[in-house]
Amino acid sequence: MRHMSIVRAEPAEAGCIADTIADAFQHLGVFVWLVPPRSERRRILRDHCQILVEHALSYGEVHVTDDRTAVAVWFARDGRPLPPPDDYDQRLSSACGRWTDRFQLVDRLLDAHRPWQPHHYLASLAVRPERQGEGLGSALLRHYHAQLDADGTPAYLEASSPPSRDLYARHGYRPGEPFAVPDGAPYWPMWREPTPL
Question: In a 10 Å sphere around its CB, with 0-12 CB exposed, 13-18 middle and 19+ buried, how is residue 176 labelled?
């Protein structure tokens, strides 16, 4: 495998990053429940992801591989509330249409299970489908974990599939009690303590 570097994403890349996340996630159980019709799902997920990515580019950190085939979206949660994305309710409704209520329910579920302790939150880790299994997600995790470990900062995420849960476990995350969307598709809340250097 060629040498790969990891860089901070630029604001102009929000659409490309949203495409990567939507392509990687559109077949996972939670996202199938969010938008059942396959013909609508990828477009709606992409538009929803763009809201998240633009917010992270302003208030978090978005890291990408240099070929833009993998992305990690992070937010620091230090006890102070993050401002919501600009015009979030209107933009969510515009992006998600008749499925908006489901996205709002998932927002409430994630908020209800998010830990109160200060941490950095991995909102999305996505690799384009044709590049999955090459270690790109692990490289993004190692890159950011080095900073967290140096600062003594824990991390939190929700895994939305058994393979992603197992990937995160290999990187030091411990799963908590899963919770689910109404059709039973699970999220696994996962917490990582910093590794002493």
Answer: middle
Question: Against a cut of 0.85, is the pTM above it?
Answer: yes
How many angstroms separate the CA atoms of 29 and 26, rounded? 8
pLDDT tens profile 96-139: 999 999 999 999 999 999 998 999 999 999 999 999 999 999 99
Can you tell me whether residue 81 is helix, strand or coil? coil
The kind and range of the H/E element at 128 are: none
Task: Compute the CA torsion angle 60, 130, 6, 19 (nearest 10 deg).
Answer: -30
Give the Å distances, CA to CA, from 36 to 30, 31, 39, 44, 94.
Answer: 10, 8, 9, 11, 18
Q: Residue 128 forms beta bridges with which residues? A: none
> How many residues would you count in the chain?
197
Q: Reduce the DSSP state of residue 3 to 3 states and report it.
A: coil
Distances in whole angstroms, Cα of residue 158 to Cα of each of 70, 87, 108, 112, 152: 18, 25, 14, 12, 21
Strand partners, 7: 64
